[in-house]
Design brief:
Elements: H1 2-16, H2 18-76, H3 80-94, H4 97-134, H5 140-145, H6 147-165, H7 169-194, H8 199-219, H9 231-236, H10 238-268, H11 271-288, H12 294-305, H13 310-337, H14 339-346, H15 355-380, H16 384-409, H17 411-437, H18 443-463, H19 468-493, H20 496-510
Helix pairs in contact: 2-4, 2-6, 2-7, 2-10, 2-11, 2-12, 2-13, 3-4, 3-6, 3-10, 4-6, 6-8, 7-8, 10-11, 10-16, 11-15, 12-15, 13-15, 13-18, 13-19, 15-17, 15-18, 16-17, 18-19
């Protein structure tokens, strides 16, 4: 009876914070998402000049280099940047400063070792990578020069993990904003000066800038220390490698899948066509990702803290889905309606061929906003096998769907394949995680998802209309309804309406 009373009191206390949960999710989505908006604005300017100076061919080459470096980094970093966050957050919660200092030293030691491994691997494999991706050895030197980028990306992941584990979200936001500004300031002059030959210098210099910013932010709490020759310290890091093994395997599979799709496009079509796919992918996927920025930094630690409490886990997941869907649906509707204008603004008219692909791919981000919060369950539970199997399943379907779509339909087929692959992932994750972890989607959450998806389909139909009048009229109505439903939930479940009223009143009083 005493246990039941204590449990009931705990549930009651938890439920009293039900409204605060929406506020919490929205707060950190807003903080990091707001920074991402600034990042996107900087990217818009950067991509505009990049398109002008190096064209579709150059953008295709830059993306291929990026994906290859990402694949090598994911293959050699052992997932330390992800696996370290969980234990850091636990030590921070308990206030064990001495253990924290030692664990940070452990993280930096292992990230330095894996960074060196990544650089050497990239250097050795550069001729093979050139032949694999482009069918010749002309870019072998370029791949070899990516070695420092691979190393710094791994080191950057370690410093970012420290900031996440210590919950330094505001500092992370500041670093992200400054990094976006400096990246733009470096990229534009180099591409103007060197053209396509500036791809490697741009990748190296921008990675260096972002790494140094994260290093500076993390060393404010913990001065940089490593123990490369400490057997005790090295042996204690084995648990990180074990925990991160599934994450790293999933990263390898994901990067390999992306690289495989782009290599197929280059070999069967052209590098310019791959550049158009990259532009469409960037427009829909990369810019829409700003909605997900709080997932790793805030949501994952909260879900992990729920432990074996199924009710608390389901509550957190449903709230996260609600917020992601209510932000994603209106964003996608408005974004797709304005795509032709956005492409002219961000790129050049030759990139307008990416519009059909982007429209067909829009569904993938909506599906992701539903299944992403659920997919974190396996990581929060430390169930690496399930996580790896689900990632492998998605990657196989992704490659098959996108390649088949591109083969039979060109760019728009690739976009449709991307959406269908994510729909499959949603169904698979929902089915498996409901059975294994007891996940249940609330009826209200399900209704919101279905309603907003229906509105998104109508919005995409409007965006595909060739007549501007019909597009604006129908699309405007659909966007208004979608945004109105989202605002209604925010108004009822959070304090955003009260804050907006107070802000408006303060402004009026000043006048």
């Amino acid at each position: 009876m005493l246990y039941q009373a204590a449990y009931a009191a705990e549930v009651s206390l938890f439920m009293t914070h039900k409204d605060d949960s929406y506020n919490h999710v929205l707060k950190y989505t807003g903080l990091l998402g707001g920074v991402q908006v600034f990042y996107v604005l900087m990217s818009i300017i950067r991509n505009k000049f990049t398109a002008l100076f190096i064209g579709t061919w150059g953008m295709g080459l830059a993306d291929l280099y990026n994906r290859t470096a990402e694949l090598i980094g994911n293959t050699t970093n052992f997932g330390i940047a992800f696996s370290a966050v969980r234990h850091l957050a636990e030590l921070q919660e308990r206030g064990e400063q001495k253990a924290l200092t030692l664990y940070v030293k452990l993280i930096r030691t292992w990230t330095l070792l894996t960074a060196l491994l990544g650089a050497v691997t990239c250097l050795i494999l550069s001729p093979w990578l050139s032949h694999l991706t482009l069918g010749d050895y002309h870019t072998a030197k370029g791949y070899a020069l990516l070695s420092p980028m691979v190393a710094m990306t791994t080191l950057l992941g370690g410093e970012a993990a420290i900031l996440k584990g210590m919950h330094r979200l505001r500092r992370m936001a500041a670093v992200s904003a400054l990094g976006a500004l400096l990246t733009m300031a470096v990229t534009i002059p180099l591409y103007w000066w060197l053209g396509v030959h500036g791809v490697i210098p741009v990748l190296l210099s921008t990675t260096t800038v972002v790494f140094l910013l994260n290093l500076h932010a993390a060393t404010r709490d913990f001065p940089y220390r490593v123990g490369l020759f400490s057997k005790r310290l090295l042996s204690r890091g084995m648990h990180m490698l074990k925990l991160g093994s599934a994450y790293i395997a999933a990263g390898i599979l994901g990067s390999g899948a992306e690289m495989g799709v782009r290599s197929f496009m280059v070999r069967t079509s052209s590098l310019a066509e791959a550049g158009l796919y990259t532009a469409g992918f960037t427009l829909i996927v990369s810019y829409a990702r700003l909605v997900f920025v709080a997932m790793d930094a805030d949501y994952f630690p909260r879900l992990s803290a729920a432990g074996d409490d199924v009710e608390r886990r389901n509550f957190a997941i449903n709230r996260q889905i609600d917020v992601l869907v209510l932000l994603m649906a209106p964003f996608l509707i408005l974004f797709t309606l304005c795509l032709p204008l956005i492409i002219r603004l961000l790129y050049t008219p030759e990139f307008l061929h990416a519009v059909p692909m982007a429209l067909c791919a829009a569904g993938c981000m909506f599906f992701k906003s539903v299944y992403a919060p659920i997919s974190y369950l396996s990581l929060a539970r430390g169930d690496s096998f399930v996580y790896l199997v689900m990632e492998l399943l998605y990657d196989v379907v992704f490659v098959a769907a996108v390649i088949a779509g591109f083969y039979y339909g060109g760019l728009w087929g690739a976009g449709l394949g991307l959406s269908l692959a994510n729909l499959f992932d949603l169904i698979a994750i929902f089915t498996v995680y409901s059975w294994r972890y007891g996940f249940k989607m609330e009826r209200t959450t399900l209704r919101r998802c279905v309603l907003q998806f229906g509105l998104l389909l109508v919005g995409l139909f409007a965006a595909a209309q060739p007549i501007w009048g019909a597009k604006v009229a129908l699309g405007g109505v659909v966007f208004t309804v979608s945004a109105g439903l989202s605002w209604d939930l925010l108004r009822r479940e959070t304090s955003i309406a009260a804050r907006w009223t107070a802000l408006r009143q303060r402004f009026l009083n000043k006048k």
